[in-house]
Design goal:
By secondary structure, the chain is α+β, with helices and mostly antiparallel strands. About 30% of the residues lie in helices and about 15% in strands. Pfam families: HIT.
Amino acid sequence: MENCIFCKIINQEIPSYKVYEDELVYAFLDISQVTKGHTLVIPKTHVTDLFDYDAQLASDLFSRIPKIAKAIEKAFPEMEGLNMVNNNKALAYQSVFHSHVHLIPRYSKNDDFSMHFGNHQADYQSDELKQIAETIAKQVETND
């Protein structure tokens, strides 16, 4: 895609710090380096976000992630955990609109990275949760 920074990285029009590459997937260091070893994994096919994936593309990309994550873990044995983050659409903090997965090594609770999951369990009754689940399940069936 024209003017896509990640497509330009794949095509070597812009330099990157490559971690992994095969015919379908490219992985490279995020220049922000939220933590040491912060890596982006992208499909070589331009897709905007997860909503543009088909089953094959998802398999191609996500099947490589454990290999890359294990390599990060071996490279940095002091690492105590890893966050895998995939933001989709602007409201969900996607800033580059070529789908990508962040692999963010965690070294301590004092890393400059955080996530917050609010607990709204008290806001939903069992019948509401059942209705939400049924609504989503119906859509899963129609997307097969």
